[in-house]
């Protein structure tokens, strides 16, 4: 019976000693324009900042209502945790920012959100059908939930096997 608690202690130690980086994913922490923001004066550039450094394959694009790309960028040379680029003159309307963040450990995160340009006296632009905000892809799981679930399954399997072994 002593081995059952040892398996649980081993699983807990394994989880506690796992580096936080294994559980981390690149998260969008700031953006200009911000999600859902109504812009009354265009900034000279757009910028997306992430929680960790990005690698090749990371990209961002801004699309207008009909889906035409109006701006793009990749990882910033000076700051590997951001993507930025010049923001062209935009007509009034709703725009969507679509981003892909790739990190050193191979994790790929994707998201999207909208912002609105509403500059007094500017030409109205097209608005996408069904425009809305959000990071896309359904509800996000809490950080590390898959890792914790795997530990529980592994620990349960070890406990089951030890019980079978002890009862035979």
Walkthrough of the structure:
The protein is an alpha+beta fold and 168 residues long. A hairpin with a 5-residue loop joins β7 and β8. α1 packs antiparallel against α3. The strands form two sheets. It has a five-stranded mixed β-sheet, with no helix packed on it. A three-stranded antiparallel β-sheet has the order 1-3-6, with no helix packed on it. The chain is elongated and about 85 Å long. The longest helix has 23 residues.
Short description:
The protein is α+β, with helices and mostly antiparallel strands and 168 residues long. Helix content is 25%, strand content 29%. The protein is elongated and about 85 Å long.
Key attributes of the depicted protein:
3 helices; three-stranded antiparallel β-sheet; 168 residues; five-stranded mixed β-sheet
CA radius of gyration: 23 Å
N-to-C terminal Cα separation, in Å?
13 Å
Q: How would you spell out the order of helices and strands?
A: HHEEEEEEEEH
Helix content: 25-40%
Strands of the widest sheet, in order across it, are 2-8-7-4-5
β-strand percent reads 25-35%
Instruction: Pick out the low-confidence regions.
Output: 128-143
Number of helices: 3
The tally of beta strands, per DSSP, is 8
Shape estimate: elongated
Q: Please state the structural category.
A: alpha+beta
Oligomer: single chain
Average pLDDT: 77
Q: Major beta sheet, specifics?
A: 5 strands, mixed
């Amino acid at each position: 019976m002593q081995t059952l608690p040892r398996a649980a202690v081993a699983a807990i130690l394994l989880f506690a000693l796992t580096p936080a980086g294994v559980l981390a994913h690149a998260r969008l922490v700031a953006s200009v324009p911000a999600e859902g923001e109504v812009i009354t004066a265009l900034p000279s550039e757009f910028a997306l900042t992430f929680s960790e450094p990005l690698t090749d394959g990371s990209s961002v694009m801004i699309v207008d209502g009909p889906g035409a790309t109006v701006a793009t960028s990749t990882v910033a040379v000076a700051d590997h945790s951001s993507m930025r680029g010049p923001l062209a003159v935009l007509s009034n309307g709703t725009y969507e920012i679509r981003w892909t963040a790739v990190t050193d450990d191979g994790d790929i995160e994707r998201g999207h959100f909208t912002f609105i340009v509403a500059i007094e006296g500017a030409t109205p632009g097209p608005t996408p059908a069904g425009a809305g905000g959000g990071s896309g892809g359904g509800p996000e799981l809490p950080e590390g939930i898959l890792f914790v679930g795997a530990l529980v399954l592994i620990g349960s399997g070890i406990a089951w096997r030890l019980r079978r072994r002890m009862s035979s």
